[in-house]
Amino acid sequence: MNRVVWNRGVQKQLSLIPEVIVRKFRVWVALVEESGILEVRRCKGFHKA
């Protein structure tokens, strides 16, 4: 299991960007923590193919 860690600066930046981007970021974090970065990198839309 992986863990994504960020500092207070990221939380502040998340409050400044559109909600749709925040949701996509949170989905990415959940996927990385559940499946690992190598599995998530295979998903189009998060990383270039």
Overview of the structural elements:
The chain is 59% helix and 0% strand. The chain has one domain (1-49). With 49 residues, the protein is mainly alpha-helical. The mean pLDDT is 86.
Notable traits:
49 residues; flat; 59% helix; mainly alpha
Q: Quickly give the structural class.
A: mainly alpha
Number of domains: 1
Major sheet summary line: none
Strand content: under 5%
Number of strands: 0
Overall spatial form = flat
Low-confidence stretches: none
Radius of gyration: 12 Å
**Helix and strand sequence:** HHH
**Mean pLDDT across all amino acids:** 86
> Helix coverage percent of residues?
55-70%
Number of helices: 3
Q: N-to-C terminal Cα separation, in Å?
A: 24 Å
Structure at a glance:
By secondary structure, this protein is mostly helical. It has helices at residues 8-14, 19-35, 37-41. It is flat and about 30 Å long.
Please give the structural blueprint.
Layout lengths: L7 H7 L4 H17 L1 H5 L8
